[in-house]
């Protein structure tokens, strides 16, 4: 672990719990506390507690905030209702993805003036600098990086609501948290602390993410751990987070998404809103629009697919995908054994002619061709 890696506001809590720490995107973060599989299983059956304080939080405010974001990102953010959130992306002019983001409109924002942009830890500087460049010359919008002052804690799993709502003393606030829709947020006092509570997540389970001032994070963490432990909640690290998101078919920047990849390549063309218009009703220009417009109906050179492993050896990032004759037709982006499903799973970019569901392929695992089958994403959906 690098000596230059920044400690999370919860660093001492992780050390006290015996976590194995790793350098992730310049932060010292918990990889695991004990067993990867046990932490993964706890999230699927009860709940897991995650430190996400390495994520970036960028405030965009002002009378032109919504319009500025519409021109900077591929999504239609002015269409967001107060308290709602949207998954979107920031792209280059050629359509390549700089980062995938979650943008929240503040619950009390009635005039489209206050947004929170949450960026991946590895791309905070890239996103901040790109937004600053795209906002240049506008006096109706301000951009503020709150990443250092903000901690983010997530509770994910079927008992997440029970745990979080149980720490909200005010009955009206408790009801509001319980009633939150997916990709929505509400302010509430949780364990006596002011928090923005969002019903989002990256595991395929129900769950909440809580934004609090960095100094309040240890108190919140301990309260959630104390309240949740009798219900099966365990602290969970980056390893379990990765296997959970893989089962849920969720992309990871640097694996499924990068600057050589467009949203359409990743099967996420739906996030690109080409129907955005300006005040005059004309198509709204946004960075990457021309390139993405041309890709919207074109046959992609490669397609992201799910692969079910038919043997015990798991495919890993970077392994070639091959046909029965040994011809290379793609590359694995993420792969691992699935604790929930009991067999290996992977995501891969392959050529369109081998992307149909049921196609039998193989992955070159250190010189040995391990059989796989193309299957729909996600691999796992939580019971309703």
From TrEMBL:
<dbReference type="GO" id="GO:0008483">
    <property type="term" value="F:transaminase activity"/>
</dbReference>
<dbReference type="InterPro" id="IPR022903">
    <property type="entry name" value="GcvT_bac"/>
</dbReference>
<dbReference type="GO" id="GO:0008168">
    <property type="term" value="F:methyltransferase activity"/>
</dbReference>
<protein>
    <recommendedName>
        <fullName>Aminomethyltransferase</fullName>
        <ecNumber>2.1.2.10</ecNumber>
    </recommendedName>
</protein>
<keyword id="KW-0032">Aminotransferase</keyword>
<dbReference type="GO" id="GO:0005960">
    <property type="term" value="C:glycine cleavage complex"/>
</dbReference>
<dbReference type="Pfam" id="PF08669">
    <property type="entry name" value="GCV_T_C"/>
</dbReference>
<dbReference type="InterPro" id="IPR029043">
    <property type="entry name" value="GcvT/YgfZ_C"/>
</dbReference>
<dbReference type="Pfam" id="PF01571">
    <property type="entry name" value="GCV_T"/>
</dbReference>
<comment type="subunit">
    <text>The glycine cleavage system is composed of four proteins: P, T, L and H.</text>
</comment>
<dbReference type="GO" id="GO:0032259">
    <property type="term" value="P:methylation"/>
</dbReference>
<keyword id="KW-0808">Transferase</keyword>
<dbReference type="InterPro" id="IPR028896">
    <property type="entry name" value="GcvT/YgfZ/DmdA"/>
</dbReference>
<dbReference type="GO" id="GO:0019464">
    <property type="term" value="P:glycine decarboxylation via glycine cleavage system"/>
</dbReference>
<dbReference type="InterPro" id="IPR027266">
    <property type="entry name" value="TrmE/GcvT-like"/>
</dbReference>
<feature type="domain" description="Aminomethyltransferase C-terminal">
    <location>
        <begin position="302"/>
        <end position="380"/>
    </location>
</feature>
<dbReference type="InterPro" id="IPR006223">
    <property type="entry name" value="GcvT"/>
</dbReference>
<dbReference type="InterPro" id="IPR013977">
    <property type="entry name" value="GcvT_C"/>
</dbReference>
<dbReference type="InterPro" id="IPR006222">
    <property type="entry name" value="GCVT_N"/>
</dbReference>
<comment type="similarity">
    <text>Belongs to the GcvT family.</text>
</comment>
<feature type="binding site">
    <location>
        <position position="209"/>
    </location>
    <ligand>
        <name>substrate</name>
    </ligand>
</feature>
<dbReference type="GO" id="GO:0005829">
    <property type="term" value="C:cytosol"/>
</dbReference>
<feature type="domain" description="GCVT N-terminal">
    <location>
        <begin position="10"/>
        <end position="276"/>
    </location>
</feature>
<keyword id="KW-0489">Methyltransferase</keyword>
<dbReference type="GO" id="GO:0004047">
    <property type="term" value="F:aminomethyltransferase activity"/>
</dbReference>
<comment type="function">
    <text>The glycine cleavage system catalyzes the degradation of glycine.</text>
</comment>
